[in-house]
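Quick one, tokens below:
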């Protein structure tokens, strides 16, 4: 565990990193997601329909972006319809570049860190198991 797990999690989400090891990249290109973590082999995609839930985070990110653009333009004195058009353009441009990867990363992190579970899953144990697998076979786990 890093010294400040909250800071490491925020940094990991912003850098689009694996929620299990905070190191492996979740995306290998702008629209190309790795099926597994290249560092610890954590499986990002859990099967058909798994990322349907990412639509919730995508919706929230789009709404936040549109609200920020609308607020800024309203403050700058724009009228309603140009603001609506600018919001549509901003969300359309940001969609594939930022909203898509961050919605998936947020979904995987939320699912991984137990925000969507009933708390029975021991996240620390799972994280330790993934890190041991990343170290490779034949080496005993670190005791600390
Ligand atoms: Zn990983």
């Amino acid at each position: 565990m890093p010294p400040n797990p909250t800071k490491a999690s925020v940094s990991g989400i912003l850098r689009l990193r694996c929620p299990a090891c905070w190191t492996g990249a979740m995306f290998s290109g702008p629209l190309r997601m790795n099926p597994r973590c290249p560092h610890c082999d954590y499986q990002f995609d859990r099967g058909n329909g798994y990322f349907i839930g990412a639509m919730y985070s995508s919706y929230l990110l789009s709404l936040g972006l549109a609200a920020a653009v609308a607020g800024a333009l309203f403050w700058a004195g724009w009228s309603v319809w140009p603001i609506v058009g600018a919001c549509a353009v901003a969300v359309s441009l940001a969609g594939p570049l930022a909203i898509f990867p961050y919605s998936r990363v947020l979904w995987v992190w939320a699912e991984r860190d137990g925000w969507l579970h009933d708390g029975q899953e021991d996240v620390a144990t799972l994280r330790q198991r993934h890190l041991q697998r990343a170290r490779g076979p034949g080496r005993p786990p670190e005791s600390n």
